[in-house]
Amino acid sequence: MGRLRQLAGNTPAHRDRVVDLLRAVAIIAVVTGHWLAVYVTYDGGLRGGSVLDVVPWTRWLTWLFQVMPVFFLVGGVAGAASLTSHRKRGGTAVSWILGRTDRLVRPTTAFLGVLAVCALAARALGVDAELVGTGVWLAAIPLWFLVAYLAVVVLTPLMHALHRRYGLAVPILLTVLVGVGDVARMTSVLGFVAYANFLLAWLAVYQLGFSWQDGRLPSGWRVGLPLALAGFTALVVMTLAGPYPISMVGIPGEEIQNTSPPTLALLALAATQAGLALWLRDPANLWLRRPRPWTAVVAVNSVIMTVFLWHMTAAVIGVVALYPTEVLPDPPAGSSSWFVLRVPWLLALSLILAGLVAVFGPIERRAGPRPDPHSSPIVPAVAGMAGVLAGLLVAAVAGPGDHGPTGLSTPGLVAYFAGAAILRHARRT
To answer: Which positions fall inside the Acyltransferase domain (predicted)?
Structure first.
């Protein structure tokens, strides 16, 4: 705790602290939302799903818990500030990418390694291969976010150059292209075009972060309030009168899903969240000058990737520990008893996750090798990132089931670990 207080006390006066606050609040919302959405039944075998499937009114709650746009927004703010500072010191785009992705790749490598070893051990002990595959799939759900986030980080130097020249025209154009993808999907005319939205939509939100960072989107109610109202109005119209579903997360069986791939409705939610953040930015920064709240924000951010990566593993462990042993009853999802039992469920998973963070958090906190800011090898960097992204993509798109001895695609794992090794070598070069 003393180290965290020291880190908090050493924060530069010019730091935009609300960026760290939003990141911390977003990770708490994501974890809580995922844990609340899970329902489990045990009748000699474990079964489950999402409460969104069986209790339709809960889909409105995704407007509060779908905060991935906030991650990309503040990621854009932090990325633009970091890249600008790096450029002023004479650093290259490649060295910035190598340094920026280190804190993402390092804890992810540990996560995938431990997950693979645990799956192998479970199968060696005679656990059903399909059950192992389902458990690994649930634990690996966070990886879909990393694919998109790593991709936009890699594209940051290019997109920031476009931002410096064209400003807000870039996210506006990206939003238009997302709309084109939506139309293609709804009309089944070149429907595959919609898959580009997996990148285009998140890039649009990330670009807004650039405008936040350089002042083109100033803080205060004059910009924040109109942006939030416009985004919320568009969201209501598109979901209630338009063709988009209410849920801001995917529901199996729905013809259109707002996250797979992302839609204009999700971008409307992103605009709402961005407007509220800009509106509250100045008072939030003032509040964060207090030592206690700022130290808490620093503490969460110091292990934020660890929390994100391992929170669904905590849910898997909780399911196995609490339901077959009948420590926790499993009434019908959506019943009053089920909602009451969410309290001990959340408390139990919080304790499990705290243990996982205590074990794996130091991997994230520990600084990795720093690349030479002025000269970094381009070919190894490209090859390494390609391997990492390809491996994560394969893991993210795989559904539940037996995908190999580790529960994950073996070629995908090989590609990922090879890419991570190449990147580590490139950072040391």
So the answer is: 19-354
